[in-house]
Amino acid sequence: MLKVGIVGFGFMGQTHYKCWKALEGAQVTAICDVNPNIEEDTKRAVGNIGDTDQAVDFSSLQLFTDLEQMLNTAELDAVSITLPTCLHADCSIKALEAGVNVFCEKPMALNVQDCERMIAEAKRSGKIMQIGHCVRFWPEYAKAKEIIDSGEYGRVIAAMFQRLGSAPTWSIDNWFLDEERSGGMALDLHIHDTDFVQYLFGIPNAVSSFAAKDAKGGLIHIVTQYLYDDDKVITAEGGWAMTPTFGFEMSFNIVMEKATLVYDLTRDPMFKLCPAEGQVITPEVKKGDGWLLEIEHFAKAIRGEKVEEITTLEQSRDSVKIVAAEKESARKMEKVAIK
Ligand SMILES: NC(=O)c1ccc[n+]([C@@H]2O[C@H](COP(=O)([O-])OP(=O)(O)OC[C@H]3O[C@@H](n4cnc5c(N)ncnc54)[C@H](O)[C@@H]3O)[C@@H](O)[C@H]2O)c1
Fold first, then answer.
1. Which residue of 76, 133, 171, 298 lies most exposed, with the fewest beta carbons within 10 A?
2. What is the pLDDT of residues 121-139, one digit of tens each?
3. Domain tally for the chain?
4. For ligand 1, which residues put their CB under 6 angstroms from it?
């Protein structure tokens, strides 16, 4: 039985709790959150997709407000780090130093230097660390990658990705809206699509981004073109300036020579393969969501089971690097090379 601790029990901490609970052979035994009222406040958390209303059985959990104390006493095999992004690097490193495997939410960290520190400690400790780039595991996105890689419908001519919602305001102290702590909309939200673009097509040579800003100069809506050696047109658009009544949209259109792949969370059917010849179909995808599937993958890796390489720490770092270039490009209003 894997003994798991969750560090930061807000929206994602509770989402991880639900995922761990659904897995056989793992049990969440401890929670660490600085909020001493975490039990009562737990009911308040909400997020972009789904909700976290599944009851949490606090009676079976050891509660901590200090990470080191939890690491020293709870005898854990793994932790989920579901903290504000500014804490990802130091807390992941502390857990690795304590000999605990780490699943850390995306984005890996606020900057490339912190990502490098995390990678160095993961290597030194020999423990498993995985970053929560759940879109690589999201069933329809994973299927899109499989279809593209198969080459069955020819090369990709163009691909457009969108991730649009209103600003995340569910955190107790509104840390998401503080760029120093979250990296802002581009690093927090849009990185999902940046990382998926990297997964499909590799690191782009350069990015060209345009962005709208809020009154304080923070980016609230971004459109990026990812530039490669050939002429394919790859764009991703992300924003948290939508009105709250809009809800949340994650979607893509992927244009291949002999078929177009369409996904939109807000439509029914959400996922369609529109071939040049024949009927439109909805390809079969794995059951579950990307959060459950990525945590299942992590648990298998800890147990030493053979797993496909879906995401690496270096790729998670590179997604942070590409987003930094996107922010620079939007600020300078010019193309920025990825070095
Ligand atoms: N993968 C996804 O789809 C997805 C979705 C939302 C958020 N996230 C990421 O997950 C992370 C957490 O986001 P969230 O929405 O859960 O935020 P949240 O504000 O809902 O939760 C953060 C929790 O951490 C606690 N906390 C803060 N400082 C702490 C400390 N020093 N020690 C212990 N606990 C502390 C807070 O009290 C809070 O309960 C962020 O990095 C965010 O980018 C990922």
1. 171
2. 999 999 999 999 999 999 9
3. 2
4. 7-13, 32-35, 45, 47, 67, 82-85, 87, 105-106, 132, 134, 170-172, 188
Q: What is the CATH number of the domain that holds 152?
A: 3.30.360.10
Question: What mean pLDDT value characterizes the chain?
Answer: 95
pTM over 0.90: yes
pLDDT tens figures, 155-201: 999 999 999 999 998 888 899 999 999 999 999 999 999 999 999 99
Residue 6, strand partner residues:
31, 80
- The verdict on 218 and 256 lying in the same domain is yes
- Tell me, yes or no, whether 74 lies in a domain: yes
Query: Which residue, chain included where needed, has tokens 């690589």?
Result: 136
Tell me the CA–centroid distance for residue 276 and ligand 1, in Å: 44
Range of the domain at 332: 135-286+308-337
